[in-house]
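Reply to thread "Modeling small-molecule complexes from scratch"

Following up on the discussion above, here's a worked example others can learn from. I took a protein sequence and the SMILES for magnesium ion and predicted the complex. Inputs first:
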Amino acid sequence: MLLKYINQWINDIVERDEIMYIEMREINKTFDGFHASENVSFGVEKGHLAALLGPSGSGKTTILRMIAGLDVPDSGDILVEGKRMNDIPGSKRGIGFVFQNYALFRYMTVADNIAFGLEIQKRKKTEIKERVEELLELISMKDLGKRYPHQLSGGQRQRVAFARALAPDPHLLLLDEPFAAIDAKVRRGLRSWLKEMIGRVGVTSIFVTHDQEEAMEVADTIIVTNQGRVEQIGTPEEICHHPATSFVQDFIDLPRYEALMMK
Ligand SMILES: Nc1ncnc2c1ncn2[C@@H]1O[C@H](COP(=O)(O)OP(=O)(O)O)[C@@H](O)[C@H]1O
Ligand SMILES: [Mg+2]
């Protein structure tokens, strides 16, 4: 009898340790009978940065939209710290977004763009001002608060988008191909910048990309998607050297990974 309790107690501890910050459990989503997500399951640990990597149309954005509460799964559970989120409105989930096409507000200054989420939350003026200053400093754009988006480079605009998403202190940051519209040269610098920023802020993040190099440079864990399904979850090294399926094997360009590791 005592042994049974001890076992139960140990199991509880082990389970608690394994709780992911965010977890998708057997998520299904169809659009007019088309399976955009099929039994999608994965988790991201607190403070980690995971990448969803897969070809265009493999269901990456659909997954982010369901996490954000913009779409509702047909079945399955979305858990945050073990609590089911499916029925919580998106605005109450404490999520920040940086989307490729989620552009800055053109007629607002950089500072007002960053303040936007805080204004909605009706925070105090002095508090908003302080937070905006802090974020401008974080993104190294301290003196550019009065500029308008058209007076910035593409890279600077995405840095502002990042600051705007972080302003209300989200628990989870979702980034959907945030650098896709930026030239290759600038993109590279932005990736390492983003990785460093996320590490510094410590926010749990999910980064979507169709570019394997981008996923490998940015993320600790990669979730490979194909036709609405998860093909493999692993570190860049595991995905490249031990592809779990023939899809992953074909999709990953091993010489490119090895060249990246040499740099
Ligand atoms: N609102 C929608 N209505 C119909 N089909 C959709 C909708 N959203 C996504 N899809 C379909 O689901 C599939 C996955 O889309 P998406 O999640 O955007 O993929 P990815 O982000 O990997 O490119 C695509 O075939 C797309 O056409
Ligand atoms: Mg997409």
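What I'd highlight from this example: The pocket of adenosine-5'-diphosphate (ligand 1) is lined by residues 31, 34, 36, 54, 56-62 (CB under 6 Å). Strands lie at 22-31, 34-44, 49-53, 75-80, 83-84, 95-99, 172-176, 204-209, 221-226, 229-234. Questions welcome below.
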